[in-house]
Amino acid sequence: MSSVMQIDSNAPVIVRSTIEIESTPDNVWNIMSDLENWPRWNPEIQSVRLAGPFAEGTEFKWKAGPGTIRSRLTAIEKPGTLGWTGITFGIRAVHVWGIRSIDGKTLVTTEESWDGVHVRLFRKHFAKMLEKSIRTGLRYLKAEAEKGLHGRSRA
Predict the structure, then answer these.
(1) How high is the pLDDT of residue 1?
(2) Please, are residues 109 and 95 in contact by the beta-carbon 8 Å criterion?
(3) CA–CA dist 10, 46 (Å, integer)
(4) DSSP secondary-structure letter at 1?
(5) Which end of the chain is more exposed for a tag (fewer CB within 10 A), N or C?
Protein backbone atom coordinates (compact mmCIF):
# COMPACT_ATOMS: atom_id res chain seq x y z
CA MET A 1 0.00 0.00 0.00
CA SER A 2 1.00 3.60 -0.35
CA SER A 3 3.42 5.07 2.15
CA VAL A 4 1.52 8.34 1.69
CA MET A 5 -1.85 7.05 2.80
CA GLN A 6 -2.82 4.29 5.18
CA ILE A 7 -6.01 3.15 6.80
CA ASP A 8 -6.61 3.83 10.49
CA SER A 9 -4.81 0.89 12.09
CA ASN A 10 -6.52 1.65 15.44
CA ALA A 11 -10.06 1.49 14.02
CA PRO A 12 -12.35 -1.22 15.45
CA VAL A 13 -13.20 -2.52 11.97
CA ILE A 14 -10.53 -3.19 9.35
CA VAL A 15 -11.03 -5.26 6.22
CA ARG A 16 -8.36 -6.18 3.67
CA SER A 17 -8.81 -8.18 0.49
CA THR A 18 -6.93 -8.93 -2.71
CA ILE A 19 -7.96 -10.13 -6.15
CA GLU A 20 -6.02 -11.08 -9.27
CA ILE A 21 -7.34 -9.59 -12.50
CA GLU A 22 -6.53 -10.66 -16.06
CA SER A 23 -5.94 -7.10 -17.22
CA THR A 24 -3.36 -4.33 -17.16
CA PRO A 25 -2.82 -2.01 -14.19
CA ASP A 26 -3.63 0.94 -16.47
CA ASN A 27 -6.98 -0.57 -17.42
CA VAL A 28 -7.87 -1.24 -13.77
CA TRP A 29 -6.74 2.30 -12.89
CA ASN A 30 -8.93 3.78 -15.63
CA ILE A 31 -11.97 1.95 -14.27
CA MET A 32 -11.28 2.87 -10.64
CA SER A 33 -10.39 6.50 -11.33
CA ASP A 34 -13.55 7.12 -13.38
CA LEU A 35 -15.60 7.63 -10.22
CA GLU A 36 -18.78 8.86 -11.85
CA ASN A 37 -19.00 5.62 -13.84
CA TRP A 38 -18.76 3.34 -10.78
CA PRO A 39 -22.55 2.73 -10.82
CA ARG A 40 -22.29 1.44 -14.42
CA TRP A 41 -20.24 -1.59 -13.38
CA ASN A 42 -20.96 -1.87 -9.64
CA PRO A 43 -24.69 -2.26 -8.94
CA GLU A 44 -24.06 -1.71 -5.20
CA ILE A 45 -23.38 1.97 -6.00
CA GLN A 46 -26.38 4.03 -7.05
CA SER A 47 -24.66 7.35 -7.87
CA VAL A 48 -21.38 9.28 -7.65
CA ARG A 49 -20.94 13.03 -8.04
CA LEU A 50 -17.45 14.52 -8.14
CA ALA A 51 -17.30 18.15 -6.91
CA GLY A 52 -14.32 19.16 -9.02
CA PRO A 53 -11.40 17.68 -10.93
CA PHE A 54 -10.07 14.20 -10.30
CA ALA A 55 -7.34 15.36 -7.90
CA GLU A 56 -6.26 14.95 -4.29
CA GLY A 57 -8.49 17.06 -2.07
CA THR A 58 -11.53 16.90 -4.36
CA GLU A 59 -14.72 15.89 -2.61
CA PHE A 60 -17.30 13.51 -3.98
CA LYS A 61 -20.67 12.27 -2.79
CA TRP A 62 -21.88 8.80 -3.54
CA LYS A 63 -24.80 6.63 -2.66
CA ALA A 64 -24.15 3.04 -1.72
CA GLY A 65 -26.70 1.13 0.30
CA PRO A 66 -28.94 3.18 2.57
CA GLY A 67 -26.74 6.26 2.90
CA THR A 68 -24.99 9.00 1.02
CA ILE A 69 -21.28 9.06 1.73
CA ARG A 70 -19.31 12.32 1.71
CA SER A 71 -15.76 11.52 0.64
CA ARG A 72 -12.51 13.25 -0.25
CA LEU A 73 -9.80 11.93 -2.57
CA THR A 74 -6.62 11.72 -0.51
CA ALA A 75 -4.15 9.67 -2.58
CA ILE A 76 -3.79 9.52 -6.34
CA GLU A 77 -0.69 7.79 -7.66
CA LYS A 78 -1.36 6.42 -11.15
CA PRO A 79 -1.60 3.47 -11.55
CA GLY A 80 -0.58 2.29 -8.08
CA THR A 81 -2.67 3.91 -5.35
CA LEU A 82 -6.11 5.42 -5.05
CA GLY A 83 -7.39 6.44 -1.63
CA TRP A 84 -10.15 8.43 -0.01
CA THR A 85 -11.74 9.18 3.31
CA GLY A 86 -15.45 9.35 3.90
CA ILE A 87 -18.18 9.76 6.47
CA THR A 88 -21.77 8.58 6.66
CA PHE A 89 -24.08 8.01 9.64
CA GLY A 90 -21.17 8.85 11.96
CA ILE A 91 -18.93 6.17 10.44
CA ARG A 92 -15.48 7.48 9.50
CA ALA A 93 -13.97 5.43 6.71
CA VAL A 94 -10.50 5.37 5.18
CA HIS A 95 -10.11 3.36 1.98
CA VAL A 96 -6.91 2.59 0.06
CA TRP A 97 -6.62 0.68 -3.21
CA GLY A 98 -3.30 -0.71 -4.40
CA ILE A 99 -2.90 -1.71 -8.03
CA ARG A 100 0.24 -3.49 -9.28
CA SER A 101 1.43 -5.72 -12.05
CA ILE A 102 2.45 -9.26 -11.22
CA ASP A 103 3.27 -11.96 -13.78
CA GLY A 104 1.38 -10.20 -16.60
CA LYS A 105 -1.75 -9.74 -14.50
CA THR A 106 -2.92 -7.10 -12.06
CA LEU A 107 -3.08 -7.61 -8.34
CA VAL A 108 -5.59 -5.32 -6.67
CA THR A 109 -5.40 -4.93 -2.91
CA THR A 110 -7.97 -2.96 -1.03
CA GLU A 111 -8.17 -2.11 2.62
CA GLU A 112 -10.66 -0.05 4.57
CA SER A 113 -11.04 1.02 8.18
CA TRP A 114 -14.22 2.14 9.92
CA ASP A 115 -14.49 4.00 13.19
CA GLY A 116 -17.25 5.76 15.10
CA VAL A 117 -19.53 5.18 18.07
CA HIS A 118 -21.88 2.79 16.23
CA VAL A 119 -18.96 0.86 14.79
CA ARG A 120 -17.44 0.41 18.25
CA LEU A 121 -20.78 -0.74 19.71
CA PHE A 122 -21.67 -3.13 16.88
CA ARG A 123 -18.21 -4.14 15.66
CA LYS A 124 -19.14 -7.65 14.41
CA HIS A 125 -22.15 -6.40 12.45
CA PHE A 126 -20.16 -3.62 10.75
CA ALA A 127 -17.20 -5.91 10.07
CA LYS A 128 -19.47 -8.39 8.25
CA MET A 129 -21.10 -5.56 6.31
CA LEU A 130 -17.77 -4.09 5.21
CA GLU A 131 -16.28 -7.49 4.36
CA LYS A 132 -19.23 -8.29 2.09
CA SER A 133 -19.03 -4.87 0.43
CA ILE A 134 -15.27 -5.12 -0.21
CA ARG A 135 -15.41 -8.64 -1.64
CA THR A 136 -18.43 -7.87 -3.81
CA GLY A 137 -16.82 -4.68 -5.11
CA LEU A 138 -13.64 -6.54 -6.04
CA ARG A 139 -15.65 -9.16 -7.98
CA TYR A 140 -17.48 -6.42 -9.91
CA LEU A 141 -14.18 -4.65 -10.64
CA LYS A 142 -12.64 -7.90 -11.90
CA ALA A 143 -15.62 -8.58 -14.19
CA GLU A 144 -15.47 -5.05 -15.62
CA ALA A 145 -11.70 -5.07 -16.14
CA GLU A 146 -11.72 -8.46 -17.81
CA LYS A 147 -14.45 -7.40 -20.30
CA GLY A 148 -11.88 -5.44 -22.29
CA LEU A 149 -9.76 -2.37 -21.97
CA HIS A 150 -11.53 0.62 -20.45
CA GLY A 151 -11.31 3.44 -22.96
CA ARG A 152 -10.60 6.64 -21.09
CA SER A 153 -7.28 7.41 -19.47
CA ARG A 154 -7.10 9.47 -16.29
CA ALA A 155 -4.10 11.41 -15.04
Answers:
(1) 40
(2) no
(3) 30
(4) -
(5) C
Burial of 133 (0-12, 13-18, 19+ CB in 10 A): middle
Domain 13-147 class in CATH: alpha beta
The partner residues of 107 in beta bridges, in order of sequence, read 20, 100
Buried b (16+ CB within 10 A) or exposed e, 113-131: bbbbeebeeeeeebbebbe
Question: What's the residue count for the chain?
Answer: 155
Half-sphere exposure at residue 130, Cβ-oriented, CA atoms within 13 angstroms: 25
Q: How many CA atoms lie within 13 A of 112 on its CB side?
A: 25
| Domain ranges across the chain | 13-147
CB 134 within 8 A of CB 18: no
Cα–Cα distance measured from residue 31 to residue 12, given in angstroms and rounded to the nearest whole number: 30
CB atoms within 10 A of CB 57: 10
